[in-house]
Amino acid sequence: MNRRASLPHNKVALDLSFKGAWESWPYRSKFPQVARDLANGTDGIVAMTWADKDKQTAGVLYWKVHGSSLQIATRDPDWAPDNPEDLAYAAKRIGDEVPLEGWRKLAKEFIDRFER
Predict the structure, then answer these.
(1) What are the C-alpha distances in Å from 24 to residues 33, 46, 99?
(2) Helix, coil or strand: residue 15
(3) N or C: which end of the chain has fewer CB within 10 A?
(4) Is the pTM of the predicted complex or chain greater than 0.85?
(5) Spatial separation of the C-alpha atoms in residues 112 and 116, rounded to whole Å
(6) How do residues 35-74 score in pLDDT, each as one tens digit?
């Protein structure tokens, strides 16, 4: 949604960017486990990448480390990032509590912080 499919795998920058974006995100209360994990000292990148491909979560997308980058991956081979229906479907699979625009804003804040 923000025209990024990967980021350089800079652990410190990813941790800080995720934590900062998460703290300012108005929907964070919908995901108390992430808040608990961060409060208990879990690194931001671990909280962010917890739903890897091996886990059978409801999500369509997940993060994976590939070489020196962190990439968005999909569990659905027909998924297309430029298809509005696929984007809406991905957001709905996570849960109805957060609208698609809410996810876009979290991702934008994360990317903006990472690129500072």
Answers:
(1) 17, 19, 16
(2) helix
(3) C
(4) no
(5) 6
(6) 888 888 888 888 877 654 445 556 788 888 888 998 888 8
